[in-house]
C-alpha cells in the first residue's frame, strides 16, 4: 500500500533589517563615521557656550579658514597614501606666497602671480621627488631638509626677508571675496569654493582613475605594484608635483587673504595641520589607505575646533597642544588598526 510521507519544508527566515549605525558605516566607513560623530559632539559642546557659532557669518568663516590647510591636505593625502610624507609643504607655500606677491607688484598681473605661485610649488615638489627617488633619501629626512631649505629661499627672495605688501583687488578677491551674497547672507567665500573644486577633483582621481588606483597599489605593496608594471619613480614625481602645486595654490590664497607675500607668518605650521588631517581622515603611516573625503572631514573638524576655541577665548597655545595630541592619537589608532588587520589575516 502507498504510504503518505510528510514533506518537510524549510522556510528561510527574512534577513533582519540592518541598523541605522550599520547602514551609516557601510555608506561612509567606520573612520569617517567616527569623525562625523566627533564633529557633532564638538559642535554640541561649543553651542552650549556660545550662540554665535551657528550664525551664517561664522559658519562661512569656518569654510574660508579651511581653504589653505584643505588645499595642502588634498595633496598630502596622495603623498601619504603612496607611502610617502612631505614636511616641506608649509615652506613651499611660503615661497609661493612671496613669488605671487612679487609678480603682482612688479608686473601688475594677478593671473601671472597665481600661475607663478602654483608653478614654483610644482617645481619644488619635483625637487622633493628627485631627492627621494634618485638620491634614495627617506621621504621624512628629504622633506625635513627641504622644509628648512625652502623656508630659507622664501626669506632670500623676499626683499630684506620681510613680507611683500601687495594691494590688488583682483588678488584679494581670491582670498576674501564672496559670491551669491544677498540680504543678511554674507555670501560663500571664493577660497572655500576653490577648495571644494580641488577636493572633488582629488576624490574623483583617487577613486575612479587608473592613476588613483596606482597610488593605492604603490602604497599598499610597492613590490607588487612594480611587478604589475607601475613605474614607481614616475608616479612619485607626479604625486609630489601635485602636492607641491596645491601647496603653491595655498600660498597664493595666503597672499590674497593677507595682502602680502608671507615667507613665514601665515604658512608656518601648515604641514602639521595637513598631516594631522590626513591621518585623522583614516590614512595609515604605512600607506595604501586613505581618502580625500575623510581628509576633508578631518579638516572641517580641525577648523571647527580652532573656531570654537577662538569663540570661547581659549589661548592659541592650547589649540597647538590639542592639534598635536590629535596627531598622536590619529597615528596610534591607525597603527592599532593595521596591527589588528595583519593579525586577522595571519589566522
Automatic annotation (TrEMBL):
- What membrane topology does the UniProt entry give? Multi-pass membrane protein
One Pfam family in the UniProt entry: BPD_transp_2
Question: Where this protein primarily resides, as one coarse class?
Answer: membrane
Where is this gene product found? Cell inner membrane
According to its UniProt entry, this protein's organism is Vibrio nigripulchritudo SOn1
> Where does the sequence pass through the membrane?
27-47, 59-81, 87-104, 111-133, 139-158, 179-206, 237-256, 277-305, 317-338
**Can you say what this protein is called?**
Ribose ABC transport system, permease protein RbsC
CDD domains, per database record: TM_PBP1_transp_AraH_like (cd06579)
What InterPro entries does this protein's entry cite? ABC_transp_permease
Give the similarity note: Belongs to the binding-protein-dependent transport system permease family. AraH/RbsC subfamily.
> GO CC terms for this protein?
plasma membrane
- What GO molecular functions are on record for this protein? transmembrane transporter activity
Enumerate the UniProt keywords alphabetically.
Answer: Cell membrane, Membrane, Transmembrane, Transmembrane helix
Amino acid at each position: 500500500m502507498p504510504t503518505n510521507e510528510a514533506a518537510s519544508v524549510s522556510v528561510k527566515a527574512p534577513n533582519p533589517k540592518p541598523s541605522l549605525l550599520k547602514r551609516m558605516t557601510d555608506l561612509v566607513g567606520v573612520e569617517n563615521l567616527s569623525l562625523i560623530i566627533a564633529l557633532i559632539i564638538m559642535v554640541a559642546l561649543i553651542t552650549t557656550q556660545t550662540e554665535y557659532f551657528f550664525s551664517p557669518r561664522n559658519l562661512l568663516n569656518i569654510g574660508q579658514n579651511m581653504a589653505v590647510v584643505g588645499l595642502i591636505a588634498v595633496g598630502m593625502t596622495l603623498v601619504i597614501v603612496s607611502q610617502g610624507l612631505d614636511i616641506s609643504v608649509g615652506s613651499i607655500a611660503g615661497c609661493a606666497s612671496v613669488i605671487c606677491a612679487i609678480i603682482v607688484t612688479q608686473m601688475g598681473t594677478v593671473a601671472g602671480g597665481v600661475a607663478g605661485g602654483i608653478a614654483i610649488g610644482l617645481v619644488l615638489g619635483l625637487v622633493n621627488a628627485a631627492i627621494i627617488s634618485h638620491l634614495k633619501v627617506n621621504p621624512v629626512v628629504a622633506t625635513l631638509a627641504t622644509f628648512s631649505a625652502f623656508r630659507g629661499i622664501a626669506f632670500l627672495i623676499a626683499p630684506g626677508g620681510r613680507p611683500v605688501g601687495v594691494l590688488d583687488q583682483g588678488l584679494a578677491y581670491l582670498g576674501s571675496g564672496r559670491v551669491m551674497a544677498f540680504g543678511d547672507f554674507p555670501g560663500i567665500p571664493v577660497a572655500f569654493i576653490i577648495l571644494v573644486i580641488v577636493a572633488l577633483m582629488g576624490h574623483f582621481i583617487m577613486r575612479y582613475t587608473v592613476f588613483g588606483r596606482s597610488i593605492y597599489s604603490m602604497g599598499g605593496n610597492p613590490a607588487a605594484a612594480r611587478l604589475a608594471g607601475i613605474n614607481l619613480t614616475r608616479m612619485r614625481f607626479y604625486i609630489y608635483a601635485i602636492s607641491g602645486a596645491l601647496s603653491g595654490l595655498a600660498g597664493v590664497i595666503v597672499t590674497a587673504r593677507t595682502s602680502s607675500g608671507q615667507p613665514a607668518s601665515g604658512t608656518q605650521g601648515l604641514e602639521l595641520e595637513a598631516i594631522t588631517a590626513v591621518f585623522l581622515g583614516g590614512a595609515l603611516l604605512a600607506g595604501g589607505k586613505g581618502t580625500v573625503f575623510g581628509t576633508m572631514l578631518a579638516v572641517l573638524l580641525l577648523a571647527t575646533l580652532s573656531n570654537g576655541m577662538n569663540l570661547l577665548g581659549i589661548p592659541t597655545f592650547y589649540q597647538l597642544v590639542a592639534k598635536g595630541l590629535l596627531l598622536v592619537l590619529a597615528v596610534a589608532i591607525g597603527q592599532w588598526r593595521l596591527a589588528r588587520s595583519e593579525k586577522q589575516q595571519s589566522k
